[in-house]
Amino acid sequence: MATIQHPYLLFLGDAPDQLAAKTANGVKVWRPEWCIGQFRLPGCKADLGLPDVSIEEAAAQGAKTVILGVANRGGFIPESWIVELVKALGLGMDIASGLHTKITAIPSLKDAAERNGRKLFDVRHPSRDYPVASGKPRPGKRLLTVGTDVSVGKMFTTLAIEKEMRARGLNADFRATGQTGIFIAGEGASIDAVIADFISGCVETLAPANSEDHWDLIEGQGSLYNVSYSGVTLGLIHGAQADALVMCHEIGRPHMRGLPDYPVPEIPTAMDTILHMAKMVNEDVKFVGVSLNTSNVSADEAAAFKAKTAEQTGLPVVDPLKDGVAPIVDRLLAG
């Protein structure tokens, strides 16, 4: 898999609001040392708090890649962006995009990239073929985050675990399976865009055989309980062949996201189902912690829910944003 080179210039274009720049914001939060600054066109309503720099200034400061870290309505790329992006290619920078529209399908960008020997990365779209999974045991250790639903903090939790493990001098790498994660890691695969038969094989490729002291920390996607996206989750579980699992959950969610007729499962119930599926490829797999998003409840409600969940599961239960993930890593290393 090709690696996206840093430092980055985060391209916000004419983003209509802060939410539209959430991908760029994720890069800024987790890889601030990779970010030279932000580029904004007139009318941009998003601000990452980074220096505003022009395309020319970014090139002079050594930026290697322009990250299209903003989503607009329909995922298209307006002409005002293309003019600046062609300029960036001419000044020696690559371009990486997480938009639905393929930048490799835009003639002016493709021609400018070829003319200047630069690369275009469409991270939402697979750029290679993957094998069918073999299911064969492989050396190295792997942790996978899973969730009671989608968008409950699986990427954040995985990155927090990587940060904690690396701070302890451990051999660990975050393995990205979504567009924001790919920009943060510099490589990875948008697993939800992989043809279903090859999802598990893609994960085997993403987290291959490694040394016995190495941990691949694999970003989870979807949920077995969200019928819209359960297929990608099962493919991840089987391809990861995980040694350790972390359950992620948002307190107070009224129903499965996008599915008002489906209730969010209880954490112990979801853990039992997921563990059953994970043991198909690794009999020794186990849960090592529960990660909670407590942003929608009071401190007292969060504390009560943590205590109840810890009693139910016998595991460390944390909000990674407020508490950190040290207790989960402690349990992971305890074996």
Structure, explained:
35% of the residues lie in helices and 17% in strands. It is built from 12 helices and 11 strands. The chain is α/β, with parallel strands linked by helices. It has 2 domains: 115 residues, NAD(P)-binding Rossmann-like Domain (Rossmann fold); 194 residues, Rossmann fold (3-Layer(aba) Sandwich), CATH 3.40.50.300. The strands form 2 sheets. Strands 7-8-6-9-10-11 form a 6-stranded parallel beta sheet, with helices on both faces.
Task: Give short descriptive properties of this protein.
Rossmann fold; globular; single chain; 2 domains; 335 residues; P-loop_NTPase; alpha/beta; 12 helices
Helix and strand layout, with pairings?
Blueprint: E1 8-13, H1 22-30, E2 35-40, H2 55-60, E3 65-68, H3 79-90, E4 94-97, H4 107-116, E5 120-122, E6 141-147, H5 154-167, E7 171-175, H6 179-185, H7 199-206, E8 214-218, H8 230-240, E9 244-250, H9 267-278, E10 286-293, H10 299-313, E11 317-318, H11 320-323, H12 326-334
Parallel strand pairs: 1-2, 1-3, 3-4, 4-5, 6-8, 6-9, 7-8, 9-10, 10-11
Main CATH class of the largest domain: Alpha Beta
Instruction: State the assembly state of the protein chains.
Output: single chain
Q: Per the principal axes of the C-alpha atoms, what is the gross shape?
A: globular
- In CATH terms, the superfamily of the largest domain is P-loop containing nucleotide triphosphate hydrolases
Count the beta strands.
Answer: 11
The CATH architecture of the largest domain: 3-Layer(aba) Sandwich
Number of helices: 12
Q: Strand fraction band?
A: 15-25%
State Rg: 20 Å
Largest sheet: number of strands, sense, barrel closure: 6 strands, parallel
- Give unreliable regions as ranges: none
